Amino acid sequence: MIPYTVNIKLAARTLTGTLNLQNKTAVDWGWQGLIAQGCHSSILIMDPKTAQTIQVLERHKANVVKVKWSRENYYHNLSSPYCLRLASGDASGKIIVWDVVSGTAHCEIQEHSKPIQDLEWLWNQDASRDLLLAVHPPNYIVLWNGDTGTKLWKKSYAENILSFSFDPFDPSNMALLTSEGIVFITDFSYSKPPSSAGKKVYIASPHASPAHTKPAPAAAPAPTGAKKALNKVKVLITNEKPTAEAVTLNDCLQLSYLPSKRNHMLLLYPREILILDLELSQTVGVVAIERSGVPFTQVIPCAQRDALYCLHENGCITLRVCRSTSAQEEAAATDPEQSVQELVYDLRSQCDAIRVTKTVRPYRMVICPVNENKAALMVSDGRVMLWELKAHTGRSVVNPSSGLSPLYSPVSFCGAPLGPNQKRIQDLSLNSMISQTLIAGEAPPPSSNQQEVQLKFLLTGLLSGLPLPPFAIRMCPPLTTKNISHYQPLLAAGTSNGSVLVYNLTSGLLHKELSVHSCEVRGLEWVSLTSFLSFATSSPNNMGLVRNELQHVDLPTGRCFAFRGERGNDEPPIEMIKVSHLKQYLVVVFRDKPLELWDIRTGTLLREMAKSFPTVTALEWSPSHNLKSLKKKQMAAREAMARQTVSDAEQSSVESSVISLLQDAESKSETSQAISAREHFVFTDTDGQVYHITVEGNTVKDGARIPPDGSMGSIACIAWKGDTLVLGDVDGNLNFWDLKARLSRGIPTHRGWVKKIRFAPGKGNQKLLVMYTDGAEVWDTKEVQMVSSMRFGRNVNYRILDIDWCTSDKVVLASDDGCVRVLEMAMKSASYRMDEQDLTDPVWCPSLLLPRAALTLKAFLLLQPWSGTFTMDITQVDYNEKVEIKGLIQEQLNSLSNDMKSVLQDSELSLLQRCLLVSRLFGDESDLNFWTVASHYLQLFAQARQLSVTSEGGSEETQPPSQNHLDICHDILCESSYFQKFQLDRVHLQEVKRSSYEHTKKCADQLLLLGQTDRAVQLLLETSADNPSYYCDSLKACLVTTITSSGPSQSTIKLVATNMIANGKLAEGVQLLCLIDKAADACRYLQTYGEWNRAAWLAKVRLSPAEGSDVLKRWAEHLCSPQVNQKSKAILVLLSLGCFYKVGEMLHSLGSMRYFDRAALFIEACLKSGVMEANDSSNKLIEAAFLDYARLLRSLGLREGAALWASRAGSAGEQLMEELFQGEGGVPEAVLGEDEVEVGLESTEETL
Length: 1248
Prior knowledge:
Residues 488-827 form the WDR11 second beta-propeller domain. It is found in: Cytoplasm, Cytoskeleton, Cilium axoneme; Cytoplasm, Cytoskeleton, Cilium basal body; Cytoplasmic vesicle; Golgi apparatus, trans-Golgi network. By secondary structure, this protein is an alpha+beta fold. Helix content is 27%, strand content 28%. It has a five-stranded antiparallel β-sheet with strand order 14-15-16-17-18, with no helix packed on it. A five-stranded antiparallel β-sheet has the order 27-28-29-33-30, with no helix packed on it. A four-stranded antiparallel β-sheet has the order 1-60-59-58, with no helix packed on it. The model is unreliable at 1-7, 207-235, 243-249, 665-673, 949-962 and 1225-1248 (pLDDT under 50).
């Protein structure tokens, strides 16, 4: 027979269970699309789309307390590829940065030995993406290089730091939540530690501040719950340290900046969420829970829409969306009582709660950062519930009095208006589900083309872990040549609640969960590949007797029956069960009762031993039996019978071999029932004497007895394989018997009680696995020497509860941290390579591919101009690459959802929409930001171009009006008109909320800058006479009202303003300049003094587009300077100004960025939309960009793509074409012919 090996792929893996309390905050959902979660000292990597665990990282020795994925906010190419990088911090203060695909650690960082409080990757500058900021208790923040592990700087603060939050709009601002309040830092920089100690702000608890609750006037009706909360939080933030009784420290659970609008922050309390406007340090919104409501534990603010995901103590996730202020105006018109102006967050959707018990409680929620429409809930018992937000069109059935304005679905998809028959994905992301919140004074869009939507949570996935330890585990019988066709590597784990979990170790997924017993499972034994016996014992009564349950379970059907029938009540507990090698017989050993011998096939009791039978301490069946000789005898007898029945004449015609084959088949079916082979077992008694017993059919014979070995203590376990018998005792001695040579050899291990010993499966494999109370060892019994060892406290931090062999070279261990680990024989706990895994469902994650392959996949999805239709099959493309890599790319393509495939194959999808969609698919933050802004402004300027036939000079700078604007989360990049409305709306809210002179002064200043002079004068005149600024404010009010545009007064005011600025009163000087409409000068002064953000803000709200664009262009130049190094932000600013040619240059130019693919695609989009023309001046850039993109595609192996772009890159392109098609008889016609049509250039032929 030809020897062949079979590889049932069993990767080393960890099956995890319940979480530790310290793991509570250790979870993160990365831009790469995967969730990381700490489970004891391991880290699980899960794919939320298919609900699979795809990697477990093991290296930490203490519980993991924080995990953070690195951000994807950089341009991806071969030198900075798509990768899976994760930072994790544990309770001993160690931080590890992982390469998740290979499961290895990049670097390890240790500063102190206390638990890491918070971690964050810096994402805001183009220089380095390796910087990691960590909070080391009690009060240090340290900036590390996450690639090399070097410390860049360290800074200590006065109070204990609990967590921090970065301002998403300005990376130099961050807030620390400390045990006493909040510390605001305004000079954060990666190059040096913050110089100041920050501005300390104390939070008065919303409940314990009687001073702030105003007595309600007698006539007024009692305020409702929400209004009450509002009164309470009139003033919350003070700079003085409040009195002891007014403050309960640590009441604030969380603080974070709102990524949807600038300078807003939320504070989370158990019963309310406060929204603060940081310019005023004033509460402008409250989400309060009614008295009977369930308290909050966590909140995550969204960026795409002003919405909050809230997690409640019962595991319910709610989505609250900010109510539009225009709707509030309408409400105020109908009911003046409702006119309390504030930000209101309406409950729009909620998911089901979970059943909370002592051991089961919700820990944390994470949301998908790319699309913000999926949430995952981590439960303490190891479950992960994956919820997805779905939008249903149709009118709502809410009562009109609830004040909920309807939500509408946007009329655009991926940043472009929907084509008439264009496919779209309704639930792609939050901003493609609900349209923008309207602000006051904004006309709602015509309702004809908008559909009302309802939001609902749908449970789309569930990952569950192992239950609480202890476990009893047993691997199914090993793989043999006979069972290879239907073998499944199943592991049965009996649990403390009486259920048995069966896992398939190829995939690591739960195969079946069977509720078998009513008490803790003590042991399992398989009786075939699809059935097993398990026993459980109840807790003893006062006589020391228990109820024994011994169940026979059939896996395919799930049928269980009590194997011992009615027996089992009120008897001594079962100690162990042992099944013979041929699975014919079963021995049941009791504590203080003689053993029972059963026939498994018939389920009958063969013998219950006599009372005088010795007490058994260890027992094992012999691997030798007489089945083969019995079968031979039986075959001989049958053949003789057959020969007698067949006559001689027939004998000659029918070959005897055919007869024997027939008999063979017949006998095989009968032998299993009819033959009872002889089997033996050995056991030891309390004195260490070894007994030998033979069982055949229903006869039981006593055999030889071997006297005890003097060197051994009480024997605890026996293992027997081939000619080797091994005994282990309670003192840690192992005794190896060679039965053939009749030799015995004792080895003291000095490790205490030998709990279990098991031989590895496989012919001639004499490896032995030994379990002690403090660990395990693998021995080679041929050489009688130890192969590997693990010990609690030395190289692992968990105790072992049970052991078994999983294959001939891998072991499986159950441990007290609730995990079951499959390890190599060396027993080093190791992570595995993700690309070597056998997953049940393919996972979409381009970061898993090789860098080159990931970029090829991206190029393939972005543009396929070489054919009239889009294909999802990479084999149809001229792509020279190894078959394995092609296969991996195709696997990624296949794992896309059908919705996504149909949209990508839709010929109506424009290039811009495709770029946006692919950047979402790849979770590429940098690409997504760029294409969102680019597609918006390209369409805007293209529309304006069609509308206006004005002179060439003015067209670039004028911003056209638009129906749908860029979301306010883009801040300064929004259109001026929308930005102004938003700022006015905000000042209006601040004005309503002001509660002190400080606030009033800030509001008046802001109104003056916005040009709202009348309202500002009213506020200035409110100053009371006993206020020291009374005189000053009154004069200011007079000044504002009397300013005329006459020359002399203007020049005087300008002179005063410049003097003020020169003497350090920048803000006051800028105000005066704004009064006389010299805002452009004001912006210049602000820029000179380094107030770049303020200058940009002022330019947006006060200047005409032409003047404003000068200010913003200067800002863009400043952002490009080496010391600031935020070129990617500068590009976005230039996009918002319509400087498309400059953007193309910057993307492509050598000294700058070299973003070849982005540059070529952007220029192509500009040409298509008509905002850039191919003429002599622009041809040089266009050809250079296309040529570099062609070279890039050639280096990736996409020849047709390279040929297409090269054909449009002038003379240099022709040269590249020749290189591409050398020896193939010149350039194929198709490349030059059809593709020009497909790309649809609106330019003349000079381009080519």
